[in-house]
UniProtKB/TrEMBL annotation, chain A:
One of its GO terms (molecular function) is peptide transmembrane transporter activity. GO terms for cellular component: ATP-binding cassette (ABC) transporter complex; outer membrane-bounded periplasmic space. Its main location: periplasm. Belongs to the bacterial solute-binding protein 5 family. It holds the Pfam family SBP_bac_5. It comes from Xanthobacter autotrophicus. Coiled coil: none annotated. The keyword Cytoplasm does not apply. Residues 83-445 form the Solute-binding protein family domain. This is ABC transporter substrate-binding protein. Keywords: Signal. The keyword Signal applies. Residues 1-24 form the signal peptide. It is found in: Periplasm.
Automatic annotation (TrEMBL), chain B:
The keyword Transmembrane applies. Keywords: Cell membrane, Membrane, Transmembrane, Transmembrane helix, Transport. It is a multi-pass membrane protein. It is found in: Cell membrane. Belongs to the binding-protein-dependent transport system permease family. Pfam families: BPD_transp_1, BPD_transp_1_N. This is ABC transporter permease. SUPFAM superfamilies: MetI-like. It comes from the Bacteria.
Length: 551, 322
C-alpha cells in the first residue's frame, strides 16, 4: 500500500504541475497585447494517418483534425458548447419545433471558385448525412424533407422536434460537401474524398502517403484577413518517443489528442518552448467505461455488477493509471454536459468489504483457493493507458476474490469480440459523449444494436424496454426541460441496473509551441480550424489592420 | 545453364502463384474485416454504414467470388485496388518504394562494406587487440535492440546536439528542389540508415570473420604460405574470395526481404517506407493492399534466390547449375 501511496503522491504532484503550467500557458496564449501576425508555416502532428480526407464519410479523429481547417462548419462551438455562427449566420426553430431554418453566409466560395449555396447543404443532408454518415443517420432521422427556397436559406422539416441537430452542426458533425463535385458519383469512391474541396481557411495541397499532408492559405477566404498562417503541414509521426522529440525540438508546434505518453506530458509542460493544455475537448467529452456482459455468467446478476463497481477505486484510476488526465466518473453523461449530468444520488463508492459482502450474499462465496469466479477482461487497443486500466481492474477484482484474465487483440478483433461474437465478460472502452447525450450516450444502452457487430454500440447486451422508450422519447422531445428530465431518468435507471460502469471522464491534452498564438480554444478545437492561429516569431511587425471577427 | 534457367522460371511461377493462394486464405483467418476497422476508427457506426462499407470493399461477395477475382488479378499481374486508401495497390507500392529502396540500399551497402572490412581485419589479426575490439563492438551492436539505438541516436544527435532532424524524409516546410533537396534527404537519411546499418554491420562482421578463419585453416592456404606467398595476397586472393560465399548467401536473404522494409526503424524515424505500409495494412485488414505487398515480396525473394545461385557460379567456378 505504501507503494501505491507513493505513486499517488507522485502522480498528484505531476498533475498539479501540468495543470498549473497549462493554465499559465493558456493565459499567455490569450494575451492579446500583440496584434496577430501574418505568415509562417505551422507544422502539426497527425497520428495515426487519416484514411480519407472527408469527415462527412468517416468520423475518425485524424480525418476530423485535418479537415477541420479545410471545411467550415455550419456553426462553431465556443468553450461552453454554445453554437456560434460560421457558414450559417443565424438559425431558428419554429414554435412547434417542427421546422428548423438556417440562414447561410453570403459570398462564400468553394476552393474551386464555385459559390457555396443552400443546394450544397440540402444535397449533403439528403445524400450523405442521412444515408452514409456513421453518426448523423440517427441525428437527422426526424428530418422528413429539406427545402432550399433561395441560395442562402435551408429549411428542415421534422416529423418530431429534434433538439440534438444544433449540437452537431460543426465541421466534424455535419460537413457540407460540394454538390457539384459529388452529385451523381459513387460517393464513397469519389476521388475528391482524398483531395477535398471545401470552403475553409486552408486549401488542400498535397498528401504524401505515410509522410505528410500540406494545406495552403485560402486567399479567397470569406473572413477577410484570415487565416494568418501561410501553410499548415501535418506530419505523420508513428513513434511516441519521436513525437516527444519533435515537439521538444520545435520541429512540430501542435499535437492534439494526447500526442505523447502521459508521463512525457509532465516533462514537456515544464519546457519553456512548449505548453500543455486540456482545453478544446469539451465537444467530445470522452468517458471511459467498463461494459459488463449481462448475458454471461455471474455478471447476469445485477447484485454482482453492483458489487464489482464498489471493488473498483475510480480515484486511483484517474490519478495513478491516467496520471491525473482523467476525472472519476459518476454517470454515463460526463459532467462537462452540465445540463444533463445527474447521477440521481446513486454512487458506488470504493468499498471492497461491502463488495465482498454483496458477492457472498449473491451466492458467490470464495472457493478453497480464495477465488469466487474468473472473468475475461478485454480492453480497447488504443495504447498503454487502456491496458493499464485493464490491469488495474484485474488487481482490484482480485482483492475481492474475483480472478481475471486480461486479453489483448487488435482493434478489428476487439470490436468483433465485443459487438459481434459477444465472447467477453468485461470490456473497457471509451465513447465520445458529444455535446448532446443523444449522440454519444444513448448508443451504449439502446437494445436494438446488440450483437449486430456494429462497433461502439450497446456492448453490455442490456435490454430494458423502459430505457429503450426513454431513449426514443429523448429523440423526439422538443421541450428542453422535459428532455433533461428524460435524461435524468435514464441515468438513474442505467446506474441502478449497471450494465455499464462509468470509470473516468478522460482529459485529452494538446501540446503546442509557446509562440503559437490563438484565442481561447473553442469547445471543438480538436476538430476545429487554424483560422485564428498565428506564430509569434518575436520580430517586430509592420502594423496590419486587424479585421474584426465577423461574428 | 539455359535448361536450368528454364526449369527455374517454371518453378518460380508455380511458387509465386502458390504463395498468393495461400496468402489469400491465410489472411482471411484474422478476425474482423476492413469495414469493422473503419467503423471502429470512425468512433460510431450504424448497420447502414457498415453495409455501405462492405459493399464498397466488395466484402459482401461470397468468398469464392472474391477468390476468383483475386486469382484473375494475380494471373494478369493486376495488384487490385485498396478501397481503404482509395488508390490502386500498385500505385501505393510505387509511392513507397523509393523511400524503402533508399533506406534499405544505403544501410545494406554500409553494412556489407564496413562490416565486411571490419570482419576481414578482425580475421587477419585474430586473437590480437584489433580483433577483440572489433568483435566486442560487433557483439554490442548485435545485441542492442534496433529501436533503442534509434531512439538514443535521436536523443543525442537531434535533440541534444541539434545536428540532424528528428524524423521524416525531407523538410517539407523548406520547399527545396534539386541538389538542395537531395542534400536535405541525405541529412534525414543518416540516422535511420545508421540505426539499421549498425545492426546489419554486426552480422556481416561476425560472419566475415568466422568464414575467413575457417578458410585460413584449410590446406590450400597452408600450401600458399609454404610457397612463400605474401600474407596480404593470401588474405585477398585465396581466403577472401572463398569466404565470400556465406556473405553472398546472407546478402541474398536480406535483399529478399528488402520490400518488407524495416518496420521498427521506419516507425521510429517516421520514414515513409513499405514496411509501415504493410504493417498498417495488416491492422486495418486492408487485405488487397497486404496481398499486393506480399505478392511483390515473394517475387523479389524468388528472383534474388535465382541471382544468388548465379552469383555462386561466378565466385566459385567449381559450382555448377544443372
Amino acid at each position: 500500500m505504501v507503494h501505491i501511496g507513493l505513486w499517488k503522491a507522485v502522480a498528484g504532484a505531476a498533475v498539479a504541475l501540468v495543470v498549473s503550467a497549462g493554465l499559465a500557458a493558456a493565459q499567455d496564449a490569450r494575451d492579446a497585447s500583440a496584434p496577430p501576425k501574418a505568415g509562417g508555416t505551422l507544422t502539426a502532428i497527425i497520428q495515426p494517418e487519416p484514411v480519407i480526407l472527408t469527415a462527412a464519410l468517416n468520423t475518425a479523429a485524424p480525418t476530423g483534425i485535418v479537415t477541420g481547417s479545410i471545411f467550415d462548419g455550419l456553426v462553431d462551438y465556443d468553450a461552453n458548447l454554445k453554437a456560434v455562427p460560421a457558414l450559417a449566420e443565424s438559425w431558428e426553430t419554429s414554435k412547434d419545433g417542427l421546422t428548423f431554418t438556417l440562414h447561410l453566409r453570403d459570398g462564400v466560395k468553394w476552393h474551386d471558385g464555385k459559390p457555396f449555396t443552400s443546394a450544397d447543404v440540402k444535397w449533403t443532408l439528403e445524400e450523405v448525412w442521412k444515408k452514409i454518415h456513421p453518426r448523423n443517420q440517427a441525428i437527422f432521422a426526424k428530418v422528413t424533407s429539406v427545402d432550399a427556397p433561395d441560395d442562402r436559406t435551408v429549411v428542415l422539416h421534422l416529423s418530431q422536434p429534434s433538439v440534438a441537430i444544433l449540437s452537431s452542426l460543426n465541421s466534424n458533425g455535419a460537413q457540407v460537401l460540394p454538390k457539384h463535385l459529388y452529385e451523381g458519383t459513387d460517393i464513397l469512391n469519389n476521388p475528391y474524398n482524398n483531395k477535398p474541396v471545401g470552403t475553409g481557411p486552408f486549401v488542400f495541397k498535397e498528401w504524401s502517403r505515410g509522410n505528410y499532408i500540406v494545406l495552403e492559405r485560402n486567399p479567397e477566404y470569406w473572413d477577410k484577413g484570415k487565416p494568418y498562417l501561410d501553410r499548415v503541414v501535418f506530419r505523420v509521426i508513428p513513434d511516441a518517443a519521436a513525437r516527444s522529440a519533435a515537439l521538444e525540438k520545435g520541429e512540430v508546434q501542435w499535437g492534439v489528442l494526447s500526442p505523447v505518453p502521459l508521463k512525457d506530458a509532465e516533462r514537456l509542460a515544464k519546457l519553456p518552448n512548449l505548453r500543455v493544455s486540456t482545453e478544446g475537448y469539451e465537444w467530445l467529452s470522452p468517458w471511459l467505461f467498463a461494459d459488463f456482459n449481462v448475458e454471461r455468467g455471474p455478471l447476469k446478476d445485477v447484485k454482482v455488477r453492483q458489487a464489482l463497481a464498489q471493488a473498483i477505486d475510480r480515484n486511483a484510476i484517474s490519478k495513478v493509471v491516467w496520471f491525473g488526465f482523467a476525472k472519476p466518473a459518476t454517470s454515463p453523461i460526463p459532467s462537462t454536459l452540465a445540463a444533463f449530468h445527474d447521477a440521481g444520488g446513486i454512487a458506488y463508492d470504493y468499498d471492497p468489504k461491502k463488495a465482498e459482502a454483496l458477492l457472498d450474499a449473491a451466492g458467490y462465496k470464495r472457493g478453497p483457493d480464495g477465488a469466487r469466479f474468473t472473468l475475461d477482461i478485454d480492453y480497447i487497443p488504443y495504447g498503454d493507458d487502456y491496458k493499464r486500466t485493464a490491469e488495474y481492474l484485474k488487481q482490484a477484482l482480485k482483492r475481492v476474490g474475483v480472478e481475471a484474465n486480461v486479453r489483448s487483440q487488435d482493434t478489428a478483433a476487439f470490436t468483433r469480440r465485443v459487438y459481434g461474437d459477444r465472447d467477453f465478460d468485461i470490456s473497457i472502452t471509451w465513447f465520445a459523449a458529444f455535446s448532446d447525450p443523444q449522440v454519444g450516450v444513448n448508443r451504449a444502452y439502446w437494445s436494438g444494436s446488440i450483437g449486430k457487430n456494429i462497433p461502439w454500440t450497446n456492448g453490455s447486451g442490456y435490454r430494458n424496454d423502459k430505457v429503450d422508450a426513454l431513449i426514443s422519447a429523448t429523440q423526439g422531445e422538443g421541450d428542453p426541460e422535459k428532455r433533461i428530465q428524460l435524461f435524468k431518468d435514464l441515468q438513474k435507471t442505467v446506474l441502478t441496473d449497471l450494465p455499464t460502469l462509468p470509470l473516468v471522464e478522460l482529459k485529452f491534452f494538446t501540446v503546442e509551441a509557446a509562440n503559437l498564438k490563438h484565442p481561447k480554444a473553442s469547445g471543438d478545437q480538436v476538430y476545429g480550424s487554424f483560422r485564428d492561429f498565428w506564430i509569434d516569431d518575436g520580430k517586430p511587425t509592420e502594423a496590419k489592420a486587424d479585421t474584426p471577427k465577423s461574428n | 545453364m539455359a535448361r536450368y534457367l528454364k526449369r527455374s522460371l517454371g518453378q518460380i511461377a508455380f511458387v509465386i502463384i502458390g504463395i498468393a493462394v495461400i496468402n489469400f486464405f491465410l489472411l482471411r483467418l484474422a478476425p474482423g474485416d476492413a469495414a469493422q476497422v473503419m467503423a471502429g476508427e470512425a468512433g460510431s457506426a450504424t448497420p447502414e454504414y457498415m453495409a455501405a462499407l462492405r459493399q464498397q470493399f466488395g466484402l459482401d461477395q461470397p468468398l469464392y467470388v472474391q477468390f476468383l477475382s483475386y486469382l484473375k488479378n494475380v494471373l494478369t499481374l493486376n495488384l487490385g485496388y485498396s478501397f481503404r486508401q482509395g488508390m490502386p495497390v500498385s500505385e501505393l507500392i510505387a509511392l513507397r518504394l523509393p523511400a524503402t529502396l533508399l533506406l534499405m540500399g544505403t544501410s545494406i551497402a554500409f553494412a556489407v562494406s564496413v562490416g565486411g572490412t571490419l570482419g576481414f581485419l578482425a580475421a587477419r589479426h585474430a586473437g590480437r587487440l584489433a580483433d577483440t575490439v572489433i568483435s566486442s563492438v560487433a557483439l554490442v551492436f548485435y545485441a542492442t535492440p534496433v529501436f533503442w539505438i534509434g531512439v538514443m541516436l535521436v536523443v543525442v544527435f537531434s535533440v541534444l546536439l541539434d545536428w540532424l532532424p528528428v524524423g521524416g524524409m525531407a523538410s517539407i516546410e523548406s520547399g527545396l528542389t534539386g541538389l538542395g533537396y537531395a542534400a536535405d534527404v541525405a541529412q534525414h537519411l543518416i540516422l535511420p540508415a545508421l540505426t539499421l546499418g549498425l545492426f546489419y554491420l554486426a552480422i556481416y562482421t561476425r560472419l566475415m570473420r568466422a568464414s575467413m578463419l575457417e578458410v585460413y585453416g584449410q590446406d590450400f592456404v597452408r600450401t600458399a604460405r609454404a610457397k612463400g606467398v605474401r600474407p596480404r595476397r593470401i588474405a585477398l586472393r585465396h581466403v577472401l574470395r572463398n569466404a565470400l560465399l556465406p556473405i553472398v548467401t546472407t546478402l541474398g536473404v536480406q535483399l529478399g526481404s528488402i520490400l518488407g522494409g524495416a518496420i521498427l526503424v521506419e516507425t521510429v524515424f517516421a520514414w515513409p517506407g513499405l514496411g509501415r505500409l504493410a504493417f498498417e495494412a495488416l491492422f486495418q485488414r486492408d487485405l488487397n493492399l497486404l496481398l499486393g505487398i506480399l505478392f511483390c515480396s515473394s517475387v523479389v525473394v524468388v528472383f534474388v534466390n535465382l541471382a544468388v545461385d548465379l552469383a555462386y557460379t561466378v565466385l566459385d567456378p567449381r559450382i555448377e547449375l544443372s
